[in-house]
Amino acid sequence: MSAEPFVVVGGDAAGLSAASKFSRAAPDRDVIVFERGRWVSYAHCGTPYFVKGEVEQLTDLLSLSPEQATERGIDLRREHEVVAVDTDDRVVTVDGTDGQFEQPYGDLLVATGARAVSDPIEGVELDGAFTLHGLDDAAALRAYLIDPADASVEALGGGEFVDATRAAHFAAMESPSSVAIVGGGFVGVEMAEAFSAYDLDVHLFQRSGHVLQSFGETVGEKVETHLRERGVTLHLGEPVERLQGDDAGRVEAVVCPEHELEVDAAMVGIGLRPNVELVSEQVDVGETGAIAIDDYGQTSADHVYAAGDCAEIEHTVTGAPTWNTLGLPANRAGRAIGQTVAGDPEPVGTVAETSVVKAFDLECGRTGLTDLEAARDAGFDPVSKTITAGSRSGYYPGSAETTVTLVADRDTERVLGGSIVGSDRAAVRIDTVATALAAELTVAEVERLDLGYAPPFSPVWDPVLTAAKVLRGSM
Amino acid sequence: MSAEPFVVVGGDAAGLSAASKFSRAAPDRDVIVFERGRWVSYAHCGTPYFVKGEVEQLTDLLSLSPEQATERGIDLRREHEVVAVDTDDRVVTVDGTDGQFEQPYGDLLVATGARAVSDPIEGVELDGAFTLHGLDDAAALRAYLIDPADASVEALGGGEFVDATRAAHFAAMESPSSVAIVGGGFVGVEMAEAFSAYDLDVHLFQRSGHVLQSFGETVGEKVETHLRERGVTLHLGEPVERLQGDDAGRVEAVVCPEHELEVDAAMVGIGLRPNVELVSEQVDVGETGAIAIDDYGQTSADHVYAAGDCAEIEHTVTGAPTWNTLGLPANRAGRAIGQTVAGDPEPVGTVAETSVVKAFDLECGRTGLTDLEAARDAGFDPVSKTITAGSRSGYYPGSAETTVTLVADRDTERVLGGSIVGSDRAAVRIDTVATALAAELTVAEVERLDLGYAPPFSPVWDPVLTAAKVLRGSM
């Protein structure tokens, strides 16, 4: 056991989960968390709902306040940036509020997260153009959307943490009457709903042919129909080249190869990139561009761990290292590493890339391999079926169309992945498929699952069972 | 292959599922279904919602009309009762509308269902006392509840099938101003909701200390609180001895050992009993009192199968024969037997006794072994934990308390069962546990499941994951 502290770089989901677990499991040992920003451990996934106004206060999105971290025995240093790591001497160099210093570590967790990608789109620096990766972005966006007569920095509820200058700038500006969302992934779809809560024209640009690509075409099409019904204008297959600014440096248009659209605001959500630069010379970085780890989250360097949006993680179905930025795997991996460092080894688990998203009144879910080409690349011989069934007994009020796609491997008959879309309790049903994947169940075994049935909640054959029945019939 | 037809006794879920599957799989062979009643293949589980008025027409509850059965190539004979079975000569004796006849069979499926138990409670034959086991019971009850000025047999929407005399009798009666429900199982709880839709005092009597016994005490208590909030008077631990009638033979009171309550109507839902008498000399009946079967639904007699509410089925967790009256296993077993008889053997599957029920605004689910004593009897060393978590991210509007109990075996760490109760998408989450049981996952494996997370649908750690985490911590 090392006398030196457990040092965590990054005070978000993975970092603070690790520190919390460690301080409970090894209360006599020190844990220091360096966070370069002012915010710690907040719910990224909640920011669209803050912008929309459903979540009132920015601080509602904090999972752990600095005070709570301290109570848990965590030495939390905000506005402290780790600028160098020496894995031979086990020491990190920190730029803090009182200057630079060195901090030795016994074990180190790199939980530096990811950042929003905006290239190759020019103009993201324009006034009125945003990415959404952090509470200050969310604060600025909501300040901009609210009528200047009603907007104030205080009303955002960010307390001492918020970038008040930036928020005040947008609060004073006239609200936009149109907005372009660049990118039709989770954030794009969630922000379409958020912007629609205000009185403005919402345009969504998606480079590829469908929104929510990772959910597959069937879900994408259903969501597109629903977005249009709710007044969102879709520009599918239209790659945005740049945002154009006026003389004052404010966004005035979105420019595509064959199309230009005047807008007052733009939000770019075209993806994230792992923050690996701090340690890219000291530890192995995988083909995904994220830090490579073993089953316990350890990197190629002794006593150096990585977790969350900066690290790879093993895929439940393929077994290959994969990179994603989902909340649960980050929390879980952080927690496991905290326990491991405390002396009780715990694997970080695998990730099936299960995700669920709300698009106005539609609920969508996906898990595992849903793209047949990706499944073939992973060495499977995939076969897929899509069915539509009711969410409840047909005679019971409120039954809604629920569309399920299941993918299986023809050789082993193992279920590889699935997606679901519908308006009535659809998203939660993907957990049945996620559980089946983890247990490596075959299609026949899924078909024979004894799932719950009652008229208000499900037809006799749950849509997932019906999908398994139809898929099995085709194999 | 036999030249004689596949004969099915009973035209409900199991019987017609078997006949439908058989006629698709072996279109050149004959299948005859004898149904002693006028109704076929209807949704038992929907009857409380018909009584409540949420389902408008009785015929909405038919899963398959006689015409549809004929279109599928099924020779359906309603009002034909099979009164004897000769398994040596492979022939059944049928009392039909045109007299008695013998029908040879190649294979026979006994799907005779179950009947409502009313003993040891006297007085169920009184006017204004009901059991709820069939559409005619549902029709009579609703006719009674509706104001005589508005009530008519036609408005029940039962078409040619309904027992019009009985319905007309109750339609003409003054509506009750109070009702006693005897029995706090599924039907009792669902009927409490149904009766409450009318303007009357609802009393629920339960012999044991809690309603919904098979869901365990935690769920029972939550439901009791909710029922009381919704105006239902609970009489827990009060065994009803008899229903008391007036001189005209009408229900006037419920009599308990230490308590008597005047009521205008009573509904007895204290359980069901399998209908095995037709073949109890010819095939083995198990300890549960239902017909014993093998993995393919075959009884101890050659070419004789049994499925549905009259048959046993293997328990997913214990492997022991069990008896239940759930919809999905009956449909599944029937379908499997239809396929097996057609020459493509398919196991009937196992049953975890997964069930879900709605109690006003509460959703409840249970699966596997939730009773510790039953788990010990089955040879396990059970350990159980109950947690309460939010159904959504805490900051997202609409998050509701969700209480999960998980039971596991201390030796193998295998999950044995669980229950759930809450008002927001709670019931469907039991399917995660049901899937885990079927796959024999351990508590640690459940804790590491990659379930879906998005603020509107789940906290980062789904309540099922939190339960697994806490349970594992205690093992």
TrEMBL record, chains A, B:
Pfam families with a match to the protein in the record: Pyr_redox_2, Pyr_redox_dim
Record keyword Protease present: no
Signal peptide boundaries: none
Cofactor: FAD
MF (Gene Ontology): oxidoreductase activity
Protein name according to UniProt: NADH oxidase
Keyword terms of this UniProt record: FAD, Flavoprotein, Oxidoreductase, Redox-active center
PANTHER family the record matches: NAD(P)H SULFUR OXIDOREDUCTASE (COA-DEPENDENT) (PTHR43429:SF1), PYRIDINE NUCLEOTIDE-DISULFIDE OXIDOREDUCTASE DOMAIN-CONTAINING (PTHR43429)
Keyword flag Iron-sulfur: no
Domain FAD/NAD(P)-binding, first and last residues per copy: 6-317
Source organism per UniProt: Haloferax mucosum ATCC BAA-1512
Family recorded in the similarity comment: Belongs to the class-III pyridine nucleotide-disulfide oxidoreductase family.
Pyridine nucleotide-disulphide oxidoreductase dimerisation domain location: 357-459
